[in-house]
Amino acid sequence: MQISWAAARRWQPTPVRLLGAALLLQAVLVWRAFGALLREPGQHLLMSTYDGAKNYFTFQAYVQQPWANGLRWFGQMNYPYGDYLFYTDNTPLLAVPVRLWSHYVFILAPHALDVYHALLLAGFFFSTALLTLILHRLLRHWGLVLLFAVLLPWLNPQTSRLLVGHFNLAYSGVVLLAIWGLLGLYDRVEAGRPVGRWVAWLVGAFALTGLVHLYYLLILALTTAGFFAVWLLRSPRARTARVGAVLTLAPVALCYAVVRLTDGYYSLRREATGFNYGPWRLQFSALFRAYDYQRVHFLVEPRDPPPYESAAYLGAFALFGLTLAVAVWALRPQAVRAFRAAWRTTPERQFLGLWLGASLLGLAVALGTEYDVADGQYKVYNYFSVFFYLQKLTGAVAHFRTVGRFSWPFFWAVNLLVLAGLDYWLRVSRWPWRWAVAIGLVALALLDTYDTVKHNREGLLPNVLTDPAQFPELAPLLQGLRPEQYQALLPVPFFHVGSEDLPLTVDDDNPHSLHAYQLALRTNLPLMASKMSRTPPAHVQALRTLFDADGPAPELRTRLRAAGKPILVLFDQSYYDGTNPLSAQQSNPQARALIEAGGSFPARQHLTLLATSGKLRLYRWDVP
């Protein structure tokens, strides 16, 4: 049977087949980049330092902690005070089901990190599925739908979070969920169809994103508000205004109610610090600065890479596509004006125009509310940022201090607009070389994706958290130890991060905290040290008294003695014999004093030596 070229061009796969093909191709890329995580369980991590190590620990420790702790309580750090689930940064929407499954179906604790990796990788498939649905609605060329449903999940700035250790910020499907949801809502409103059930579903879905990470909640709320504001400016309708108000405010109210009602420490917490901190704002040049691992660079870019919180590269496909459009406009302005006049009347262009307007609201927030210029002699205010006004109404806005993240919807606005414009141009143009231009632009996206997949594949690290082989020096300390005889593990030098009280903060030294994490997980003992978010300053103030000359404060001493068990102390001599200059490196005098006080802690509290391994000491402390 002969198949003509014209018939082949007219062939259209069904939506189900297109989705299946996209997911299959995505599986190939995920396997190429992260196959080792699945082939060699328990052997690799995406990040093994600082926030990444802490986020892994809080997920693993939450799953394996005693069932008596319940679901909303995390008792494996900040002992004896612990903290509530939403302040652990361990992705509650994932951690809670894994903990429930581990208790009621079969035990997942030994494989919790492998499950976590699988759930993180599932985000690529979720993004691809949503993109297939979105692009199938916006584009006519199914080849573009298939390719970019697979490629864009790798190119968006959130994917870079995986190797930074901000795992729950890597779910690009959250922003795509908003695009898909608003697209469906837009179609229903324009067609005069009922929207009640659709809005109710979106309210629930948007509220749940806050249980992945609270930043998603405000990013979606701000973008939704911007979307409806632009829509109402173009077509004022009372019904649209009511729907927009509900979809903007209801998810925030629901999620806030859940967090607030489950937080027994609410009155003890303080507001976040660091609002308008420079490295946490978007540097505008980051939009056209390729990542270091990418071979294709834009025509102009800053020499130095921006901070990781400013990762917002739009990609070679979008930037060179826009450059080409500007060049054509300069050479043939009448043709471009005619093209724009025809394209802007299409439903897909109208929707994407609304989304672009909404994303510009987030982009303005991402740039921060004020800047110092001329060595601080002048201050420039960003009146385009909604946060400039919100911070005058409520201090709660300071919680969302890392404002660079609000630029993420802008990536999707630009890329989807360029992609939709390319698709429309291929349909209406009769220029014979248009397909060569399209292939060139697609090739840029393929190259960026290839480099990103390769970078992630080469970025895998050994599992220093739960693999005993990575820390053989801990084996002598555990030999003959009966963890059930102890109530908690105290690492010395002590560290406590996340109270938002900077003078009280004592940052950890990564090798030391990794020793503490692995020892805590292998003994299932809670850590008296802590690395979480918004921990009440009163807790760290009390825990610091452990190293006072008189010992723990009366209230803390009573708590520790009530447990009826001694405390296990992990002591690292290298921090007190001149080998490690951690104390001398502290700019905070309170942190330096606390670290130095740890040197005399064993003698001052009459600790009993249990085991040694190199410069590591394991002591028993019977709290007097």
Pick out its properties:
single chain; 624 residues; alpha+beta; 4-stranded mixed beta sheet; two-stranded antiparallel ribbon
Word description of this protein:
There is one protein chain. The chain is an alpha+beta fold and 624 residues long. Helix content is 52%, strand content 7%. It has helices at residues 5-10, 15-39, 50-64, 92-104, 112-138, 142-155, 173-190, 196-209, 214-234, 238-261, 316-331, 333-343, 347-366, 386-393, 408-428, 434-458, 475-478, 510-523, 537-544, 554-562, 589-597, 601-604; strands at 44-45, 73-74, 83-84, 370-373, 378-381, 461-462, 489-492, 496-497, 530-531, 567-572, 608-613, 616-621. Strands 7-10-12-11 form a 4-stranded mixed beta sheet. The protein has a two-stranded antiparallel sheet with strand order 1-6. Strands 2-3 form a two-stranded antiparallel sheet. Strand 11 (608-613) and strand 12 form a beta hairpin. Helix 3 runs parallel beside helix 18 (510-523) and helix 11 crosses helix 15 (408-428). The longest helix has 27 residues, at 112-138.
